[in-house]
Amino acid sequence: MAAYAVQxxxxxxxxxxxxxxxxxxxxxxxxxxxxxxxxxxxxASDPMHAARARRYALQQRPDLGGRLVFAQNYRFAExxxxxxxxAAYELYLGTRQRSVNRLTRAS
Length: 107
Description:
The chain is mainly alpha-helical. The protein has helices at 2-7, 24-35, 47-60, 80-106; strands at 41-42, 68-69. Strand 1, helix 3 and strand 2 form a beta-alpha-beta unit.
């Protein structure tokens, strides 16, 4: 994704990479300190991974949520076989997390 960003005109010195993580949760956790002073935050990945990473970022640092920039994750006919299952899965996980949050607050 970094190489692609450079091809699109992003200066290489403006790109920061996190290379120590072993999961998406860790990737977000390790990357957030590097970008917490940025005006906006964009996650470059495939649609399912980007949606998951945004959700994790909001869970870990809700205060940065207003700076998340939502890219065009779902492009017509791109990976069409994954779009509906991916959207359903992310909707399910988001709904489940909201339910857990409500139950936790009610306790």
